[in-house]
From TrEMBL:
The species this protein was found in: Pelagerythrobacter rhizovicinus
Protein name: Metal-dependent hydrolase
Phylogenetic lineage: Bacteria, Pseudomonadati, Pseudomonadota, Alphaproteobacteria, Sphingomonadales
Region described as Disordered: 1-30
Keyword Hydrolase in record: yes
GO molecular function, one term: hydrolase activity
One Pfam family of this chain: Metal_hydrol
Assigned keywords, A-Z: Hydrolase
Lineage: superkingdom: Bacteria
Biased composition (Low complexity): 15-25
């Protein structure tokens, strides 16, 4: 009975307006745009580039340090399906891989700036390599579910960065623009990994599909978040901030003020619901606002 109930929810569509395989809520007229931009190639930002705050700087440096190798993993997973999905989905998949390749390149450049201040970024990258090594030899659907989980986490963070100016307040404008650029493309391509998942697992029962993605979401997101905290604390130690003080300051930043983790938690948790699809939250207005030359005149969707 439980499996039958989940079949009806997991395979629901968005009023016939979605595209792709059964269950997709991606808007039919949605397309990905390659915004091949480069940042931080000129003057070196301050060591504490985020508003002069070592804690905020450490958190974002930790996230950035994890991205190049993570983005390459996503590209590798998705390329496997390039010739296995319908043509329109394959076109969007290829646009996704180009966006992610650009993101990896720009975060390598940004991470080099952090290293130029003496921060140990290589050990963080090594930790990501070791974590991803655990995916070797796993079924491709397993790695696709991991990709979905981390892409959803990224999209939830991106939504916060684009809708609440507090998170980038006081940041050098070029660096802030890099994070906004990355965030807008994370939102833009947030549905493609899930649509590929729906197609790749179309022969699975809805219960198996739900169980696998929910379990892997809990496992990989928890591990990724804990590793980001661990590495941020490691960066703070390099600034002479350690022990209970460092843990409290980082917890306060993430969960109290400005408290991004607290504010994004319910949005992130939607992935654990049967019938989840990233585009059930339609935030295309953020994309239009970013792309518009008159950004202030573009109103967000209600």
């Amino acid at each position: 009975m439980q499996g039958d109930r989940l079949i009806g929810v997991e395979r629901e569509s968005a009023g016939g307006k979605a595209r792709g395989s059964s269950g997709s809520a991606t808007p039919a007229d949605h397309a990905l745009t390659i915004r091949d931009q480069k940042f931080c190639r000129g003057d070196r930002p301050a060591r504490w580039w985020h508003s002069g705050d070592p804690v905020a700087t450490a958190w974002y440096n930790s996230v950035s340090a994890s991205l190049p190798r993570g983005e390459k993993f996503f590209i590798q997973v998705m390329k496997y399906y390039d010739d296995k999905v319908p043509p329109r989905m394959a076109k969007e998949l290829r646009a996704f891989t180009r966006q992610e390749s650009n993101h990896a390149r720009e975060h390598v450049a940004f991470n080099n700036l952090a290293q130029s201040h003496g921060y140990d970024i290589e050990s963080i990258d090594k930790g990501i390599e070791e974590m991803l090594a655990l995916t070797q030899g796993r079924p491709v659907e397993f790695n696709l579910a991991i990709t979905i989980a981390l892409e959803h986490f990224a999209a939830s963070i991106s939504h916060c960065l684009l809708t609440d100016p507090r998170y980038l307040a006081g940041v050098d404008e070029e660096i802030a623009e890099m994070w906004r650029w990355h965030s807008i493309e994370e939102i833009e391509h947030k549905g493609i990994t899930y649509d590929v998942w729906l197609y790749a697992t179309r022969e699975w029962s809805a219960w198996k599909r739900y169980r696998v993605r929910a379990l892997l979401t809990l496992l990989i997101t928890r591990r990724y978040y804990n590793n980001r905290v661990r590495d941020a604390l490691g960066l703070l130690r390099q600034d002479g901030i350690a022990g209970a003080r460092a843990k409290w300051l980082l917890f306060k930043h993430l969960w109290i003020a400005p408290g991004m983790m607290r504010r994004m938690f319910l949005d992130w948790a939607k992935i654990l619901l049967p019938g989840f699809h990233p585009w059930k939250q339609d935030d295309r207005a953020l994309i239009r606002k970013f792309d518009s030359p008159y950004a202030d005149a573009v109103m967000p969707a209600e």
